[in-house]
Design a protein that fits this description.
342 residues, alpha/beta, Rossmann fold, two-stranded parallel ribbon, 18% strand, globular
Length: 342
C-alpha cells in the first residue's frame, strides 16, 4: 500500500500507535495536532520505532482558514483518520460548549474541504453510543441511546453528521469505528497512554498506583449483576485497535465497502470485569496492587462488550492480543516514562 494519510490527533494515545501501523503497512502518515492533550516528544518516540520522524503540523482544526489552507497545500492526501477530539467525560459535563465547539468544528472543517473531490475518511467513534445495551454482546444494529454526557453526545451527533454527509455526496467514503476500551502500549514501550493529571481511565490509574504516583485503586461497586460484582468492559489492545484503522482504509481503497458510510465495532468480543483486570495486571507483572471497594459511580454502565463478527467478516480484522498482554505492555510503558519523563 502507499499514499499519504492525514492523522489528526496523531501524537495522542491511539493516534501515535496508528501512525506506526500505517508506516508498517506502507503508507505515509502526516500528523496534525494542536498538542492540547499530547506531547511533541511523541514524534521522537515514533522516530525510534519507525526510523524517521513523521511529517508534523501543529494546527487547530477548529480554525476554518488554517485548516482549508493546509488541505489546499496538501492535495495529495488520499485518506484521513480523525482522532482529534476532547474526550474527558467529566470535563464535558462541566464544559459542554467547549466539547461541542471543538469536536464538531474540527470535523466539519475537514469534511467541508472534500465536497468536490474524493476522500476515504475513518472516524474515531465509541461504544458510548450504545449506552447500556439491551442485549449483549452488542451489535452495530443496536439502537443508539441517549448519551450520558456531552462527550458521548458528540460521538452520536458526529456519526449523524457523517451519515448524512455521505448520503448527500458520493465523494465521501466513510467508516466509523466504534471503540470499546483501548488499553496497553506498543511492544517497544516507547509510546503509550499519557494522561494529563489524574487518569480518568482504569488501566493508567492502575499503572500509576503500582509505581507509586497514585494512592489505592478504587473499584466503584462490587454489587453489580456480574460474576464478581464489578463492572464489565471490553478491553482492547491499542495496537490491535490501530491495525483496525489500517484495515478500514484498505477496505475503502479496495472498493469493498457496501455503502459509502459504514460502522464497525472494534473490540475483542469478550467482557472483562474490573477485578479481573486487576488480577490480570498482578499475574502478568508480579506486582501486587493496593485496591479498595467503593460505592458505585454515577453514570457508570454495568456491562458492555461488543459483537465483532461484522469486523472479522467484512474488515478482515480481529483482535489478537489478550488482557495479560495489555496489562504487561501498559506496565512496561509506565516504567519507561518513570525513567524518561515527558
Amino acid at each position: 500500500m502507499s499514499g499519504k494519510i492525514l492523522v489528526t490527533g496523531g501524537t495522542g494515545f491511539i493516534g501515535s500507535h496508528t501512525v506506526v501501523e500505517l508506516h508498517h503497512a506502507g503508507y505515509t502518515p502526516v500528523i496534525v495536532d494542536n498538542l492540547s492533550n499530547s506531547s511533541i516528544k511523541i514524534l521522537d518516540q515514533i522516530e525510534k520505532i519507525i526510523g524517521h520522524k513523521p511529517e508534523f503540523h501543529q494546527l487547530d482544526l477548529c480554525d476554518v482558514k488554517k485548516t482549508e489552507d493546509f488541505l489546499q497545500q496538501n492535495q495529495d492526501i488520499s485518506g484521513i483518520i480523525h482522532f482529534a477530539a476532547y474526550k474527558a467525560v467529566g470535563e464535558s459535563v462541566e464544559q459542554p460548549l467547549k466539547y461541542y465547539r471543538n469536536n464538531f468544528y474540527s470535523l466539519i472543517n475537514l469534511l467541508n474541504h472534500y465536497q468536490d473531490r474524493r476522500v476515504n475518511f475513518v472516524f474515531s467513534s465509541s461504544c458510548t453510543v450504545y449506552g447500556q445495551p439491551d442485549v449483549l454482546p452488542v451489535t452495530e444494529a443496536a439502537p443508539v441511546k441517549k448519551a450520558e454526557s456531552p462527550y458521548g453526545n458528540t460521538k452520536q451527533v458526529a456519526e449523524e453528521i457523517l451519515s448524512e454527509t455521505a448520503a448527500s455526496n458520493n465523494n465521501y467514503n466513510i467508516i466509523a469505528l466504534r471503540y470499546f476500551n483501548p488499553v496497553g502500549a506498543h511492544a517497544s514501550a516507547l509510546i503509550g497512554e499519557l494522561p494529563i493529571g489524574i487518569p480518568q481511565n482504569l488501566v493508567p490509574f492502575i499503572t500509576q498506583s503500582a509505581i507509586g504516583k497514585r494512592g489505592p485503586i478504587t473499584v466503584f461497586g462490587d454489587d453489580y449483576d456480574t460474576p464478581d460484582g464489578s463492572c464489565i468492559r471490553d478491553y482492547i489492545h491499542v495496537v490491535d485497535l490501530a491495525k483496525a484503522h489500517v484495515a478500514a482504509l484498505k477496505r475503502m481503497e479496495d472498493g469493498k465497502s457496501s455503502a459509502n458510510y459504514e460502522v464497525f465495532n472494534v473490540g475483542t468480543g469478550k467482557g472483562t470485569t474490573v477485578l479481573e483486570v486487576i488480577k490480570a495486571f498482578e499475574s502478568s507483572t508480579e506486582v501486587k496492587l493496593n485496591y479498595k471497594i467503593g460505592e458505585r459511580r454515577a453514570g457508570d454502565i454495568e456491562k458492555v462488550y461488543g459483537d465483532v463478527e461484522k469486523s472479522a467478516k467484512e474488515l478482515g480484522w480481529k483482535a489478537e492480543l489478550g488482557i495479560e498482554e495489555m496489562m504487561k505492555s501498559a506496565w512496561e510503558w509506565e516504567k519507561y516514562i518513570e525513567k524518561n519523563p515527558f
